[in-house]
Amino acid sequence: MATMDKYRSRIEGAITVSYMHLVNRFPAVKSLEERLVQSYINVLTSQRQKRWQERAQPNFIIIGGMKCGTSSLYNYLGQHPQLLSSNYKEIRYFSHDEYFSLGESWYRTHFPKAKNVPKGSLVFEASPDYLFYPEAAPRMASLLPDIKLIALLRNPTERALSHYFHDVKKGRCQGEIMAALSDQHTIYRPKGMYKNQLELYYQLFPSENILILNSEVFFAQPTDTLKRVYEFLGVDPDYEVRDLTPRQVGYNREPVAAAVYDYLNEYYKPHNEDLFRFIGEEFDWP
User: Fold this and answer.
1) Which residue from 164, 170, 166, 165 is spatially nearest to 29, judged by alpha carbons?
2) What is the pTM of this model?
3) 20 to 30 Å CA-CA from 148: which of 142, 227, 236, 243?
4) Nearest 5°: phi and psi at 119?
């Protein structure tokens, strides 16, 4: 199994790199892909919306952060027999006005019918934008006051770098790395200021309903982290996920100068200290 996972990861990486080259040369390919996906989603939700009350509400949500491992966590949890995921990741209902304006009936179409959710099972979604966008927490609290929340927090320096290279891959950023990261008008640095983002959730939800995870520990020890999540959710803690292949790994990352690391580490140091005091736990970050 480990050998198969290794080769699967290499194949996925090769396909991703090839696709990146194709998209960079022919941007219309990416545009077509996005239109096809959105058309499928629109058809699916319009059909389900007619009887949306039959759909389950989520029992827990992975709220972020972006480039912190949420795709892997979403996939791993979806392999647990007691956990039923939304029909796709990043619904972004609570964080984006264009989706929130469609109402609860649209949101509920993304989940299985309540009658098909076995007793003892839980329904969930993952939208990493929820952590950063301040409108998400109060909207969520109004509709789902008893929801459980999971936040993955990655070393903000590494998160910012991953975010930058992700945007380069997507064609959203063409600027030099130091200029992009130090630009006051970009969101690369603010998204790593976790304490400010978490405060609102702790004001609106009971602390016992919020689980904070260190992304670096999750990457290094996924099985142990998953057991902690299972215990938090109240499902079988001994279930072992078969496929632990990391998801949404960036394959276009280039070497980063020490000066960039020094700049980000120094910038985030006081923010990290504020976070550690707030959550009562320290992570092994610079």
Assistant:
1) 170
2) 0.85
3) 243
4) -60, 135
